[in-house]
Amino acid sequence: MYQDARYARTATTDALKALFEANSENNYHDNEEGNNISVLEPSLSIAPTLNYAKKGGNERKRVDLALFFALFIISEFKSPHRAGYMLVDEAFDSLDKAGQASVLKWCHWSAKRLTYLFVITHNQSLVRIAEEKGTAEGGIGASVVTAKAGNKGTELKVNGVRIGILPVSGREHRA
To answer: In angstroms, rounded to a whole number, what is the distance separating the alpha carbons of residues 114 and 143?
Structure first.
């Protein structure tokens, strides 16, 4: 049991570090001296210099999302009732570019482990990224479903092709 708890703690720590610590590509979390700021202390508590209440909306949302993904990872360990899907509802819409990149990274990671990953967004740049990554060599298949109000109800398109159209008959069905 100790080994399982240690493994869960290590996985959670690594998940949070991946979202918050700067890597060689992004240096979003450097202090004035240019040193990397560690969000997590050895005790797995949040560093006191990173007071949640004093952070801006984007930063708080990134913390919330990091905790969500960390809990998602923990839930995979021993749950016999694990769902094969995840719904991410408008998680990107108020994030800055660094936050969007972090969530995209975790969505990509999650998509490899789940049967379905549903992402709801109004951000067109993220839709383009999903379309590109879904068709790229070795990419995870992605279908972009768009919904809009039409003359006869909601119109749905999957990858630009309209779906849900009733067959045309001699008479029109009225509701």
So the answer is: 15
Question: In this predicted model, what pLDDT tens digit does every residue of 41-81 receive, in sequence order?
Answer: 555 555 566 666 777 777 777 777 777 777 777 666 666 66
Q: Which residues of 158-171 are buried (b: 16+ CB within 10 A; e: fewer)?
A: eeeeeeeeeeeeee
Q: Which domains does the chain have, with CATH numbers?
A: 2-163 (3.40.50.300)
Mean pLDDT of the chain: 68
Using alpha carbons only, what angle is made at residue 39 by residues 26 and 117, rounded to the nearest 5 degrees? 65
> How many whole angstroms separate alpha carbon 4 and alpha carbon 86?
24
Give the separation between CA 45 and CA 145, rounded to whole angstroms: 39
pLDDT of residue 25: 45
